[in-house]
Amino acid sequence: MGTRNHSDVPIVFWSLLALLIHMLNCLGANGFSIKLIPRYSIDSSLFPQNLSLLEKNYRIAELSKARALHFKSMNFANLINSTKQGIQTLQPKIQYALSNLYAVQMYIGTVPYSAVLLMDSGSDDTWLQAEGCTNCFPLRGGNFQYHDSRTYRAVSSDHPLCNPRICERGLCFYVSSYISGSFSRGIVSAENFTFTGNGGFVSFLNVVFGAGFDNQNIVFGRTMGPNNVIAGVFGLGAGRRSFLRQLASDTNLRFSYCLPSSSSLVETYTYLRFGNDATISGDVTRRVQTTPMMPGIARYYVNVTGISMDGILLPIDPAVFVLQDDGNGGFAVDSGSGATFLVWNAYIVVKNEIIRYFWRYGWPPLEESQLPYDLCYGVVPTTQALTTLTIHFIQANLVLDSKGVFQVIDNNMFCMVILPINELGPSLLGAFQQVDYRFLFDVRASTMSFVPETCLNN
Q: Are 350 and 418 in contact (CB under 8 A)?
């Protein structure tokens, strides 16, 4: 995975690919799906095969914490236009600049370049490292050879998607900033993108993206060695330059996914579905529930009114989940983080209730400080001994069974996979708490729907 030298690929393959692309372009997609791959299935530099279950959980927890910090920095940068210095004062030094948990694969250009990009629902821009970069990160198989593609072009400064207008020599530039001073800077460009999904190939012409020529301190894992396969970021926000909105005639401004459990012993993947492929249905035992999203925001915020444990509403003030005018607070749905994050005044209530619950079994929490999660127990639990949580949205309730609240992280240890974040927030619903639910985000209707579903390879 990740090699990009196509000289040994038969010419007939690319001829057939071009024919398929042409057919799909003529017909119009109006709905398509992209394979969605968890990092631990594809990123051997961060998740080598000999990694223990405990170490895997350490790394996922580290990714989650870095993702939460990045989401916080985006709040300040995008919602209230804080200065860069003001953002940096919030951040401790961490090991990851980009820590999203899921990736997508695509082919870019006339001479197809295979790119693995991190899916980011909190970002609008798609970018990847380009050949000729002055500051580069290691990338197995090499960078995007834009000069070899007959369909590549740089976007001019008067292009409608040159917004914000960062212009030099008549060209449009982008800057994507991350925590710890990391950033990718380059030329806003247009190129053909081809995806492989469960229906074959689908291609789109003149997709606007960033060709990254200055990628400073970009880190996807603990070390950025030659086995890194991540080439950049796939922006799935709802802003003007996002993939979702650029291709609105095919995406219908809606997408869905169904995330499988990370504890599966087999290689897992699922599909990111757009437009007519993004459907959701239930039955008499699995009711589809829908809640409004916060309108006018390029990310996926919802209204949370409370949290219950085993059917009993916990004493949490709903105001802690409200998105404030200054950009603080709020509750966002984000598959880029593994764990869920709750602001402290909500988290401490949940934690204390869990501790009280397990005392009935004589289980004290572990007091070790070097654990991946904040609340862990040195036992192997039975399903009957574990409790459930319910997150209450407006007009909908997301029930988290024991697998959505706890995970076995070692032979004799399980932890609550929920973590605290300070009172500025935002709270985040992470991927672990979305497992075995289909989620559908409809930006045009400004709604989020979900229903229980078996998600393995779905």
A: yes
> Which contacts qualify for 319-324: CB closer than 8 Å, 24 or more apart?
320/345, 320/346, 320/423, 320/425, 320/427, 321/346, 321/427, 323/294, 323/297, 323/426
Model confidence at 61: pLDDT above 90: no
Q: 62-66, 150-154, 354-358, 416-420: which range is least confident on average? A: 62-66
Q: pLDDT for 101-145, tens place per residue?
A: 889 989 999 888 999 999 988 889 999 999 999 999 999 989 999
Query: pLDDT band at 374, cuts 50/70/90?
Result: very high
**341 within 8 A of 421, measured Cβ to Cβ:** yes
Tell me the CA distances in angstroms from 326 to 75, 144, 218, 295, 329, one per residue in order: 9, 39, 29, 16, 9
Give tens-digit pLDDT for 242-262.
999 999 999 999 999 998 887
Distance, C-alpha 156 to centroid of its chain: 30
pTM: 0.87
| Alpha-carbon span 353 to 349, nearest angstrom | 6
> Which token pair is 414?
């399980």
Question: Look-up: residue for tokens 């080439």?
Answer: 231
Q: How far is CA 439 from CA 324, 433, 450, in A?
A: 25, 11, 4
